[in-house]
Structure formats: structure tokens, C-alpha cells
Amino acid sequence: MLKTITEGKARVKVPTEEKISSKLPVFYNPVMKFNRDVSVLLLKAIDKKAMQIGLPLAASGVRGIRFLLELPKSKIKTVFFNDNKKDFKKTMAANLKLNKIGKSKVEVHNKDANRFMLDSTGFDYIDIDPFGTPNPFLDAAVRRIARNGILAVTATDTSALCGSFTKACLRKYWAVPVNNEQMYEVGLRILIRKVQLIGAQFDKALIPIFSYSKDHYMRVFFRAEKGKQKVDEIIKLHNHFQEAGPLWTGQLWDTKLVTKMIKETEDRELIRFLKIIKAESKISTVGYYDTHTIYKKQKNLPRKQDLIKKIKKKGFKASETHFLNTAIKSDITKKELLKLI
Ligand SMILES: C[S@@+](CC[C@H](N)C(=O)[O-])C[C@H]1O[C@@H](n2cnc3c(N)ncnc32)[C@H](O)[C@@H]1O
Question: Which H or E run contains 328?
Fold first, then answer.
């Protein structure tokens, strides 16, 4: 049984079942609305026209339908929807009709995601949004992302990336994770390095322009540049952080892009989230200070905002971090911070 739901400007038919499962004939996870909101906003904010958009794991098609309905017309040449689910073509026909979307800017394929990507002539934007790890799809995605194209990658296997299963992280992401308060940023940086290494094989430098960790998943948008030297520069920034790694130690965000994204939205939740990211994007350190962890050892810890002010007064940078509500990002040393507290 299907019901019609609305997300952004899109309407899609999704299963009536309350329990979300990969086994359902059409997959739709309402929790991932935020993930899709960010994708729409990022594509609004980047300077690209007439994009060829590849959605190898399109499911209900909601993401691509939102792109077609919510982005300025000049931005999109074609959205290529693909999923290997039986009846995917029927699902898409129904959902495109429901949204009065004609055939001129749309192609629908029902293949294995890797076959779909490799059979294509390439895309300006590819969205890898799988169940669990993106690993099986990285090779084909990296091959088919255009010069200056945007590759978006989601990973929901946070148990590996956040260190619940160290061996799984070693096998899948070739790095040692942590399972403490730093796990969100460490996991995200481990994921970034893994994708960059796949890019390196094809002389493609994958530069993170917007990254975050939220709920049960991690998400990164890379700009793909071509060139051996650019790749060498990326690899130089693969290092260890404390006992974790190797991981990406470079920038997680393009601050100018984040500023544009803030201007493009009126959604309060997104603005709040983006403002925190904008502030932390200006502090190029790996990791953060969790006030709760420090508080265990220190009495009379000031409130987070007061502590941020105090750190800044001392001449250091400091901000909240989206990674953890109780943490502070700062370039202050731990020794200085403890002295200050
Ligand atoms: C997490 S869902 C994608 C959600 C979708 N991107 C969205 O925003 O709603 C993963 C989708 O990938 C499809 N899928 C899984 N493995 C696949 C493969 N090897 N080739 C093509 N599709 C695949 C599944 O059928 C499922 O619809």
C-alpha cells in the first residue's frame, strides 16, 4: 500500500508501513529530509548551470524531483534517476506524473548503480546515498564525476566510522577510529580520506566543500579537480590525530559557500545549523574540546558561551561545533584551556 507525502515542493508515493526497511518496494526515509534539504541548498548556492545530475540510488526519486522543482530552471540540463529495485520505472513514472514533470529534463534507468554510472558519459553532480557504506559505488562515481563536478557521499555505517567496531573500520576505511567524544569528527575525516584515496587512483583531487555528521549518518560534498599535483597536495594532509587515523586533516568546508547557503534559505533549523558550521569553518583544527569531558575533572566550569567568550578574549579562536552540542572548537591548547578554566 502506498500513501502520498509532501517534502519540500515534491509529492511522492511511499509505503504506508511505519517501519522503514530496505526491503520495502520503495524506500523513503523522512529523517533524511534534512540531508536532501542540504543538497538542494548546496546546489542552489554553487555557481553551476545546465548540470547533468546523476542519482544512481534514487529510491522514491524525491531528491531529484526536489532538484527539478526547487532549483532555478537554468541549473539543470537533465536529472538521471536510477535504482535497481523491481518496478523502479513504474515508481518514477507515477511520482513524476504526480509532480507534473515532463520528459524533457529526465531520464530513468533501472540498472545496477555501477553499471548505470559506467554506461554514462559523466555527471556534474553525483549523489551516492546508499544503505550503509558508500564503498561499492565510489570507484564508478569517481570515474564519472566531471572536472569541477560535485560528488556527494553519505555513509550510514557509523558503527564502523565511530569506532564501535575498530576492525570493520580498518577493513572498510583503512584507518583506526576512536570511540570517544571525538568520534564524529574523526569518523567524518576517515570517510573523507577513504573517498580521496579512491579519487587519487584516477588523478582526481577530491576537495571537501561541505561536510557534516548528524543523526545516524555522515555526509560530504567534494569538488573534483583533475591533476597529479593536486592529488599529491591532498595526500600530504592525510595524517594521524591522537591515536586515530590516518585521516583528512584539511578543511571540511568552503566558508564562502556556507555564507551563500545561509543567504539562500529561510529555514530556521538549517540557518542555525549553517551558522554554527560557518563559525567552526574558520577554525582549522582537528577535533574539539568537550566541556562535559573536561568538567569531569574540573569544578565550576563556565557555561559554553561564556567559555567561548573567555577563550576569544585571550586571543584564540573559538566557536560552537555542530559535531557535539557540549563541545567547543578552538585553536587554544589544552594546557591553556585548563589554565583558563
Ligand atoms: C538509502 S536508499 C536511497 C535514498 C534516496 N537517495 C533518497 O534520497 O531518498 C538506497 C537505494 O539504493 C538502491 N540500491 C541499493 N543497491 C543498489 C545497486 N547496487 N544498484 C542500484 N540501486 C541500488 C535501493 O533499492 C534503495 O532504493
Answer: strand 327-330
Residue type, 196: Q
Q: pTM of the entire structure?
A: 0.97
Ligand 1 contacts CB of residue 131 (under 6 A): yes
| CB contact at 8 A, 244 and 178 | yes
pLDDT in tens, 194-246: 999 999 999 999 999 999 999 999 999 999 999 999 999 999 999 999 999 99
Closest protein CA for atom 8 of ligand 1: 63
What is the CA(165)–ligand 1 centre distance, in A?
A: 24
Radius of gyration of the chain (CA): 21
pLDDT tens-digit profile of 275-298?
999 999 999 999 999 998 887 766
Residue nearest to atom 26 of ligand 1 (CA): 59
Asked whether 332 lines ligand 1 (CB < 6 A), one says no
Pocket test for ligand 1, best of 21, 83, 138, 139 (most atoms within 8 A of CB): 83
Per the CB < 8 A criterion, the answer to whether 35 and 217 are in contact is yes
User: What are the cell numbers at 225?
Assistant: 579537480
Residue ranges of domains in the chain, CATH in brackets: 2-260 (3.40.50.150), 270-340 (3.30.56.70)
289, amino acid identity? Y
